[in-house]
Amino acid sequence: MSEQSVKQSILQSNAPAGEPPRRTSLVPRAATAADLVFQRGLYRERRAAELAALPWCESDKQAFCDMQFHLQRAHWAQRFPDARHWILCRDDKGCAGDPVGLVIWERQRFGLHVIDIALHPDWRGVGWGTRILRALRREAAPLPLYLTVEQNSAAVRLYQRLGFEIESRSDPVRIAMVWQPKSVSNRSGVQNAALAFDDVTESSIQSLQTFQDRPPMDPVSDCCAATVGIGESASTLRACSTTQLQSLQE
After folding, report:
1. Cα 36 to chain center, whole Å?
2. How far apart are CA 98 and CA 194, in angstroms?
C-alpha cells in the first residue's frame, strides 16, 4: 500500500452520474504550506456551532479557533510523524481545482489510521464521506481501519453503517471505532489501535503542571494554555466544552 494507491482509490470513488458535475469527482493531492489558509478556515467552520453560544466577540472566537488549530497540528505532527496529509480538490478537467476537503491518514503496523476527514459544507450530504472511507477501507485490507470520533457526533451512525464497531469508550469525549475485514480473526492489533490514543506523555503532564502554577490569564488565553498543557490527547483539544468556556467568563 502506498500514497499513490490511496490517491488512486479516491480518484476511482466517483459519484453517481446523476449528481451535479461540480461534485461528481475529487482529485486528492499532497497538502502544502499554501493550504494552511484553507485548512484553518475549515477548522473554524467545524467549531462555529460550538462557539456560537459564547458571549465572545468574533475576533476572540477566531483567535481561539486559530490557536486550537495550530495546537492540533503540532500534536498530530508529534503523535503521527508518518501521517499523509491530503487535500481533496474539485476536479477541474482532470486537474486539481479549488480545495473542498482533506483526509489525513497514517499506515501503521496494525492497520490504517484515519486521523481526520473533513469536507466543505457544500460537499457534505452527497455521499463523499462514505466513498472516501470505502476507498481507505479497501486500502487497509486485510488489516483493520480505525479512527476516533466524538461520542455525540452524527458521524458515529455513518461509521456503523459502513461496518465500524465501537472498540473503546475509555475517553470521556471521543470513542475509538474499528473496521475489521471478516478474514481477520486476531484482534490484538485492533485492541492496540484502540489504546493508541489514550496516553498522555510525561512532557504533557509537566506542561500542565507549569500551566497550573502560573498567574491567571485572560479567559481565551487560559483555555488555550490549558489545551497546550494537556497536550491534546484524545480528550484535550475538545475538552474545553461550551460550559467550561462559559465558566471562564464568570
Report:
1. 15
2. 35
- What is residue 150's three-state secondary structure? strand
Phi, psi dihedral angles at 14 (to 5 degrees): -75, 150
Query: Which strand ranges, in their side-by-side order, compose the sheet holding 26-30?
Result: 26-30, 84-92, 95-108, 111-119, 145-150, 174-179, 165-168
**H helix and E strand count, the chain:** 9, 7
- Which residue is it, cell 492489533? 189
Residue type for 192, please? Answer: N
pLDDT band at 204 (very low <50, low <70, confident <90, very high): very low
What domains, with CATH codes, occur in the chain? 3-195 (3.40.630.30)
Which pLDDT tens digit goes with each residue over 78-97? 999 999 999 999 887 777 78
Burial (0-12, 13-18, 19+ Cβ within 10 Å), 250: exposed
